[in-house]
Amino acid sequence: MSDTVSVYIHVPFCIKKCSYCDFYSTNTLSFLPAYVNSLQREIGIRTGLAGLAGPAKKNAQTIYFGGGTPSLLPLEEVEKILGTVCACYQVLPNAEITFEVNPGTVDEPYLSGLKNLGVNRLSIGVQSFDTAKIKVLNRIHSIEESIGAIGAAKSAGFENIGLDLIYGTPGETREKWIQDLKTALEFKVAHLSCYMLTLESGTPLQAQYEKGLFQMHGPDILTDFFMATSTFLGQQGYEHYEISNFARGRENRSRHNSNYWNMTPYDGFGPSAHSFGFPIEKGLDARDTCLASPERSWNPADVNAYVQSLSSGVLQAREREVLSCRQQMLERVMLGLRTSDGFDMAVFKKISGQGYLKGITPLLARLETQGLGAVLPGSVKRFQLTLSGRARLDSIVEAFADIIL
Q1: pLDDT, averaged across the chain
Q2: What is the pTM of this model?
Q3: Are strands 58-67 and 239-242 parallel, antiparallel or unpaired?
């Protein structure tokens, strides 16, 4: 039986870099056609289907175009990429195919073209409906273009639409942020991603901060933002299913991102793209044990080197990391606690094989006593953080790390 994976395509092109973003991207758009050709080669080589013979195709349950700005790809290039993915994977009939778009780079004909190619979910990088915030974040679009992009997506027939929003910008108040959310709710979208602004190393925003041009909010204020966001959106019918993500019902959760949090295998293609998987020879039964030796790998963040290497049909050297048993345990906890489903205690015990679940039992009891977490009822024992617990996620994960590592 074929393995089932998620497929990620990194499109490393932007018109202009946002002040807060540390994802790999370039504004050298002349590389774009060569990048697509190289991407097709990488997919073919790494799946073993570049030649006449190859292994059984993996099932692709989700496909995600991220970036960068995927909506800078012409439709004919999107068609080429999807064609290659479909040739090298068995794309499941109900596969979720997500495409990130930025306002100011799309119109209704383009979005209709995406839908005709099989894209069934859009993630629109609105970030805010406040002009002052848009300026701070150095976004290229206007509020009118954001509203136009959402309208165009609906006119093109998309029902599964998500909006990305950012809160915690310098000078922002909780009241202004709630107003931003109220504006987003007017569009009745299926999904909202609400990200807390953070200073990332090497970004223009960090450089401005170090020059003393602004102050960041303190942790207490950001906790207040986080709690208010969850409470307000919950009252509006949105499920807070992951630390930064809200869906109108379980069916509207991002299946692709949920696979990351569940440590489901994924294949990433393009410069800087990451992959995660288990050795095929170990078999599916080994996935929940240390014997599986899961591996994470990633491409170098250099589109020029990427194109030059693959133009000769040669893959770039990829960085690799084999996860130790303790790394697996910590990642299961760290990723699981981000979600409303929590982490599976039985899987954790099976992975450890060394009684670590017994070792963390006092910590679980303490978190429960403090109202920060609880064991969910049901046949599958899962430990879930409460909203107050998720507001303290970093310190709680550190407490688990002290025991596990």
Answers
A1: 90
A2: 0.93
A3: unpaired
